[in-house]
Amino acid sequence: MTNRAGSFLRNLRPFSTLVPASRTRRLGFSRPKIVHSNWNPRNLLFGDFDNRVQSSVRYLFQDALIFKSGDNFQGIGPEIVHTVNRLLCPRRLSFDSKHSVSDNGLKKINFHHEASNEDVLTKETKPSPVSLRKLSQECRSLSDVLDIFSEGPTFPSSNYFSAMWTVAKRMSEDQRRVEKQLMFNHPAFHQLCEHTLREAKIMHYDHVLFSLHAIVKLGIPQNTLLVQTLLRVAQERINECDEKCLSVLSAVLEAMKPCKNVDVLRAGLRLLVDQQVWKIERVFTLQAVIKCVGKDAPIGLKRKLEMKALRELDRFSDLNSQNMFEALAAMNHRSVILLNECSKTVIGNIHGCPVKVLITILQSCRDLQYRNLNLFKAIADYVATTIDIWKLKQVLFLLILFENLGYRHTDLMDLFMKKVIDDPGSLNMKSILTILHVYSSLNHFYKSQTPKFQEVMTSSLTGYLHHISSENLLNAVCSFCLMNHFPMALINPLLQKDVINELLVSDDTERNAHKLRILAACLKLDISCHMDVDLELLPPPSTPLYPHEKVTDALRSLLGEGYFSKNTQLPHNYCIDFEVRMDINRSQVLPFSSVVTSADIRRVAILCVPRSAYCLDLGHPKGFLAMKMRHLKIMGFHVILVPNWEVERLEMKDVVTFLKTKLYSTEAFITAGVNLQSTC
């Protein structure tokens, strides 16, 4: 008998070390059977995570457990685990309905495992499960959810956190802030956190992610043991991620700040997506993944996601097309083809589009440096036709984004100017400064309304003169200078010695000195004002001189050597690329060696300007270029603008023809016509 028992035990021993099949499966979107290793739950929630948890970070990459300790990585084989006892299965988990009362009067929950025989538990000892939908519908506050939990906790605890976040989303910001504080002070809150810690490794994977998402959104600190434990469980069980979990995991990572465990989990997500991108079926999930992978994702993964999105274009809804802009901006991937197709959908369904969506689209276009005149015009036209239902701040925010993009929509800016003139009292100091910046940067004027608009802006800003900082006052005056308006009520306080000294010792000295030079040039040239205070400014930093070889060769071919000069330095820190001297009628070019009086010559300034110096339609110069042209004309120059991007695409003979057309007057030379755009 003893020999038989020993033989039986020897045959049984090898089975105790077998690895479950679910530990060796491939990455995929299928929920496996739950297999867990032995674990020891901790009851502490708050505290320094790094001090309470070992420094090693464990995560799963392609069926291998990898430990990080310091800077050394070590790969090990599949972990030998024991199949979880059926008594520990999530469906078997229960709580004793008999509660013991602690010294402080709070109920204690006795956590235990169900007996092997299911008939042992009667209906009286089993708490009835509470669904997430029922919780979120019946509860009106976060404390209501915690009260229900304290009466009889049920599995899984993720339902309570998810319900609290659902309830919180229905509240205003102020109410949500108060409710969160009440949540942290509720007696059952710490108990709920302890239950979540115990259940972390036996909950279904989607419940782990739902818990983590709700916990982060509710404002529980990221460095707590609860959050970091859920992050590590999500790392270890990432192979259980199906498409639904993938969407939730993407939302979780998007809402969290970078840290060691978050970075590890994001890296695991990238590996998972790289293998399973072609199996993603829902467009919403695809866009959530695109937003989550991060700007530093491998370019190969970004292109895979782009190709997947292009394949799904026919299934894009209007909302999908709108969200695609934000998703690509979050990944920092500029897919012109995809953006163009989504722009067409947005343009076709622009009416009724929420203001937040329009703002997000324009912000994404700015971040991606994507310029689409048709899209911008459609948005601006829609806002202009419905401007009466928009708040002034909303329209102003859109104008700021248009200015960042270099887009000037005349009708919308005219209508906004009228609203400002009619109701200047609705503007605060920040709004006034922003409006001045937008209109001066885009060099926008509206017929006879501009002087009145400038007066209203001056009067409104004068009321804040005792509250405005020196730098904001300088910014406002500089904006007025670009608009060729000089309110001395604002300029005189700026010219005080103590104010100038404060500006020149601030953190942004170079920028302030540059704007003071602009002010000095405008006061000397535009209004011939002799300042009482001499601005002792450092010389401006040397700017790189561009050769403009193509224009140089064209002038040499057209005029010959000695008939033009390069990089001419002028007063007030101005520099012109080329100078040509001609007679008064601009019919003859004069050599620089000839001695003639200034009354007998006409100086011509040729400026080679980049695309960024124009508004997006390339037909209207921006504020600084317009001011430079104005000052050069005051100094006696005839100004010719040469667009760099147009010169680069023209043949040399066409560049020569263009310069000849611009140099000589219409009476002296009838051009053959070159299709080249200029604003001069």
Automatic annotation (TrEMBL):
<dbReference type="GO" id="GO:1902775">
    <property type="term" value="P:mitochondrial large ribosomal subunit assembly"/>
</dbReference>
<dbReference type="InterPro" id="IPR050870">
    <property type="entry name" value="FAST_kinase"/>
</dbReference>
<dbReference type="GO" id="GO:0016301">
    <property type="term" value="F:kinase activity"/>
</dbReference>
<feature type="domain" description="RAP">
    <location>
        <begin position="604"/>
        <end position="661"/>
    </location>
</feature>
<dbReference type="Pfam" id="PF06743">
    <property type="entry name" value="FAST_1"/>
</dbReference>
<dbReference type="GO" id="GO:0032543">
    <property type="term" value="P:mitochondrial translation"/>
</dbReference>
<dbReference type="GO" id="GO:0019843">
    <property type="term" value="F:rRNA binding"/>
</dbReference>
<dbReference type="GO" id="GO:0044528">
    <property type="term" value="P:regulation of mitochondrial mRNA stability"/>
</dbReference>
<keyword id="KW-0418">Kinase</keyword>
<dbReference type="Pfam" id="PF08373">
    <property type="entry name" value="RAP"/>
</dbReference>
<dbReference type="GO" id="GO:0042645">
    <property type="term" value="C:mitochondrial nucleoid"/>
</dbReference>
<dbReference type="GO" id="GO:0000963">
    <property type="term" value="P:mitochondrial RNA processing"/>
</dbReference>
<dbReference type="GO" id="GO:0006915">
    <property type="term" value="P:apoptotic process"/>
</dbReference>
<protein>
    <submittedName>
        <fullName>FAST kinase domain-containing protein 2, mitochondrial</fullName>
    </submittedName>
</protein>
<dbReference type="GO" id="GO:0035770">
    <property type="term" value="C:ribonucleoprotein granule"/>
</dbReference>
<dbReference type="GO" id="GO:0070131">
    <property type="term" value="P:positive regulation of mitochondrial translation"/>
</dbReference>
<keyword id="KW-0808">Transferase</keyword>
<keyword id="KW-0496">Mitochondrion</keyword>
<dbReference type="InterPro" id="IPR013584">
    <property type="entry name" value="RAP"/>
</dbReference>
<dbReference type="InterPro" id="IPR010622">
    <property type="entry name" value="FAST_Leu-rich"/>
</dbReference>
